Amino acid sequence: MAPIVSIRNLTKSYATGFEALKGVDLDIEEGEILALLGPNGAGKTTMISIVCGIVNPSGGTVTVGGHDVVRDFRETRSMIGLVPQELTLDAFESVWNTVAFSRGLHGRKPDPALIERILRDLSLYDKKDTMLRHLSGGMRRRVLIAKALSYEPKVLFLDEPTAGVDVNLRKDMWQLVERLRAAGTTIILTTHYIEEAEEIADRIGVINKGEILLVEDKATLMRKLGRKQLMVELSDPVATVPDALASYGLMLDDGGRHLVYDYDTTAERTGITTLLAAISEAGLRLRDVSTRQSSLEDIFVELVGEK
Ligand SMILES: Nc1ncnc2c1ncn2[C@@H]1O[C@H](COP(=O)(O)OP(=O)(O)OP(=O)(O)O)[C@@H](O)[C@H]1O
Ligand SMILES: [Mg+2]
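^ thats the input. predicted complex w/ magnesium ion below
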């Protein structure tokens, strides 16, 4: 099946001359949930804004449902829901009117039953007549989500939907995303919370300095994370790994003081017992043994080189 969103060699240079995107390629499959991780200024919002037709690309192409986002803006925009990172709302409208109006703005027929369901799902129904300026920040974020859902988009972009919100809203969000996925909506969210990506995404992408560094199935990533390292500290450092231990693929660390062994925690045999026996047969004396397991956060920090 053709991807629902297809991004090819996308570049963006702002008027300041700053290159925010440097040739991004990304395909998003219909019905998947993709989480984009990246530090501040990585280019996440820029990329989303281009797909949504809010920012013009400098080069490359983006299609949504087979339509070009620049040439066929009206078609693509009506397929896309966007929950922006910044809270932008008209302070003097009520919750209900804001959400119902958003549906009309996107050319959909009025559907009060749907609006009611969305507001109930987001625990906003009892605030339906409240003016937006009287809502808390987290509730305004819920309204932004309700607005985006009001016209039943095929593709939903959530730009840091849970930044600065409480645990309840975060959990509500995750459940809502799960329901939308079940209904077939494609969802792309950006987040700084690695556990959020782990919790809800099918695929995880990492972007930094305008480049996509990795896009991988969460399951594949997690399998890689299933790998562990055994660190064997020796009483006396060695210059090279003894020939007798060649088959274990060991690495030397800490000036020959540590032997490092990579193994798969999910494998039937980890090889640790035989390795330890072989080490003492090779005449090396152990001082200490420890293990270390990398997390998604380690992978992220390693890729991006900063927290
Ligand atoms: N209108 C603009 N003019 C000039 N530079 C801009 C503009 N908008 C964004 N930038 C720059 O482009 C880069 C990418 O910004 P962007 O907002 O896409 O990052 P982000 O990944 O969404 O970051 P964050 O996690 O902080 O939201 C940043 O260095 C930013 O300063
Ligand atoms: Mg952003």
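The two ends are 37 Å apart (CA to CA).
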